[in-house]
């Protein structure tokens, strides 16, 4: 039965772009909800200082060192990068956050010249042209010796289908001279797509330097449990959408029981390094359009980003880099840069120092790869 919203509107689950699901509303908020569904694909305030988190026993907690790197990038780059925030606002304040080791942070030209291969979330291909992300992230990374490329997958197909596309894209890349330089970065549904590619196609392993999940739906999303493929398919009908229904399994592949069962049955390949960045904002740092889904998921666990519970964002056996004070959209999608009117209204908590975050992730991975595996 439909649940009652906070303003008395009846709620049902609906999808919006980038694999992001939220409650749509009927009644007084129907027009606003429809506008958001047609237009979208997810001031920073201080998170609560007593936020408690349980970190899985097989996960390496590297938040101390990563925090040193990220804070150094933010301090030295300052406002030269978009959406600058002090480190104390960019990172969530979590009980038990370890201290760094005090080593200097090298912000010079990359020696390994790592390349991010970004796999986006559900529906991203439908709205990529509308989003029109700025080139600032790619330009910033290239100036430092890194690079950023997008690995295209079906917007509305399931993870098993997209895993084959990831495999084909990697095999089509010229092999790197020397050690592998490709860092696969999965955002939202992109994370399980990547994990299925690793499990299904061992021939790509020696071409990959590392795997990173940022706000990844590794363990699925509670919003997907209440959504339908029909709702996701509406994205292919948006004006200017460049996508089709594919195998029509995108939502099903994000069900929490599907993802957790898959993880239980598919141990991740050894010999690769895995890293997780978790989005964990406070309620006041959730964009208006994601507020209803945040509140709904909070009935199960308030430690969520408006789409995914914190623990379901962590790759098993990975190195945990950070809990960041951003919602599910703000951490990757630059809606504030490409659509300022929408960012001032519906997606009003979208500003986040993404370029600095990507640099910090690559700095940490490069530093980690320079050490022999344990």
Map the helices and strands:
Blueprint lengths: L2 E2 L5 E7 L3 E6 L4 H10 L20 E2 L1 H15 L9 H4 L24 E5 L4 H8 L4 H8 L3 E4 L8 H14 L9 E6 L2 H11 L7 E7 L14 H5 L22 H10 L8 E6 L11 H8 L20 E6 L10 H4 L1 H4 L10 H16 L5
Parallel strand pairs: 4-10, 5-6, 5-7, 7-8, 8-9, 9-10
Antiparallel strand pairs: 1-2, 2-3
Can you describe this structure?
The protein has 374 residues and is of the alpha/beta class. It has a single domain (3-42, 77-369), classed as Rossmann fold (3-Layer(aba) Sandwich). The chain is built from 13 helices and 10 strands. It has helices at 30-39, 63-77, 87-90, 124-131, 136-143, 159-172, 190-200, 229-233, 256-265, 291-298, 335-338, 340-343, 354-369, and strands at residues 3-4, 10-16, 20-25, 60-61, 115-119, 147-150, 182-187, 208-214, 274-279, 319-324. The strands form 2 sheets. Strands 4-10-9-8-7-5-6 form a 7-stranded parallel beta sheet, with helices on both faces. The chain has a 3-stranded antiparallel beta sheet with strand order 1-2-3, with helices on both faces. α6 crosses α7 (190-200). The model is unreliable at 1-49 (pLDDT under 50).
């Amino acid at each position: 039965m439909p649940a009652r919203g906070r303003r008395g509107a009846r709620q049902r689950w609906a999808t919006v772009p980038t694999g992001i699901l939220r409650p749509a509303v009927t009644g007084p908020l129907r027009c606003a909800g429809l506008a958001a569904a047609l237009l979208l694909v997810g001031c920073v305030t201080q998170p609560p200082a007593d936020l408690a988190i349980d970190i899985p026993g097989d996960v390496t907690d590297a938040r101390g060192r990563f925090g040193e790197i990220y804070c150094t990038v933010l301090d030295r780059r300052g406002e030269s990068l978009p959406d600058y925030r002090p480190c104390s606002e960019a990172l969530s304040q979590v009980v038990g956050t370890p201290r760094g080791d005090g080593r200097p942070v090298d912000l010079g030209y990359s020696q390994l010249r790592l390349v991010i291969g970004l796999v986006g979330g559900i529906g991203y291909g439908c709205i990529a042209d509308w989003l029109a992300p700025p080139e600032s992230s790619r330009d910033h990374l290239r100036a430092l010796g890194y690079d950023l490329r997008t690995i295209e997958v079906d917007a509305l197909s399931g993870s098993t289908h997209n895993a084959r596309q990831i495999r084909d894209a990697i095999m089509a890349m010229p092999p790197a001279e020397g050690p592998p330089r490709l860092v696969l970065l999965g955002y939202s549904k992109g994370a399980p797509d990547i994990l299925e590619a690793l499990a299904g196609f061992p021939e790509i392993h020696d071409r990959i330097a590392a795997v990173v999940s940022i706000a990844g739906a590794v363990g699925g999303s509670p919003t997907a449990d209440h959504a339908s493929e029909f709702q996701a398919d509406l994205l292919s009908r948006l004006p200017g959408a460049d996508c089709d229904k594919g195998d029509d399994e995108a939502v099903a592949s994000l069900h929490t029981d599907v993802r957790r069962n898959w993880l239980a049955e598919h141990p991740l390949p050894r010999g690769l390094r895995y890293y997780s960045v978790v989005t964990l904002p406070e309620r006041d740092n959730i964009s208006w359009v994601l507020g209803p889904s945040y509140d709904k998921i909070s009935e199960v666990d308030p430690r969520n980003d408006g789409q995914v519970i914190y623990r379901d964002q962590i790759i098993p056996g990975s190195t945990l880099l950070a809990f960041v004070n951003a919602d599910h959209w703000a951490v990757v999608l630059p809606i504030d840069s490409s659509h300022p009117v929408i960012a001032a209204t519906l997606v009003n908590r979208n500003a986040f120092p993404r370029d600095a975050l990507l640099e910090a992730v690559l700095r940490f991975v490069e530093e980690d790869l320079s050490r022999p595996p344990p």
